[in-house]
Design goal:
single chain; about 120 residues; 5 helices; about 15% strand
């Protein structure tokens, strides 16, 4: 997209999206040590990235790549659009869907691990 002139180099190099995946024990310890909240509910679940095994989703005609791209888009679109503008958003997630579908065609992926936390202010 840089070579097409859609994105500028300074926008790309100035974008920082740090990501840290914590373990459940660490998250519980942080909540406890911070002290502003008590833990109301703490649940974990596994999510299968490759939905080709999920009949009801596949019957809708949506590929695993598109499904995963939509999931990523739901989380990241506002951050990307606020930094880069919204003119390229559709194209970036169409490319994402293709790349994920290509990856899934070659590699069996592990399930993702989700943590859901409900806190009560002290």
């Amino acid at each position: 997209m840089f070579f097409k002139g859609i994105l500028h180099e300074e926008d790309i190099t100035s974008f920082n999206l740090p990501f840290y995946a914590t373990c459940t024990e660490e998250l519980e310890a942080i909540i406890g040590s911070e002290g502003s909240f008590s833990l109301d509910r703490f649940e974990t679940s596994e999510v299968n990235w490759d939905i080709r095994e999920e009949d009801e989703i596949m019957e809708s005609g949506e590929s695993s790549g598109k499904f995963i791209a939509k999931t990523i888009r739901a989380i990241t679109e506002s951050m990307l659009a606020s930094h880069f503008g919204d003119t390229f958003i559709d194209e970036i997630f169409e490319r994402c869907a293709l790349l994920v579908a290509e990856h899934l065609s070659r590699v069996k992926t592990d399930n993702l691990f989700n943590i859901v936390v409900s806190l009560i202010r002290k």
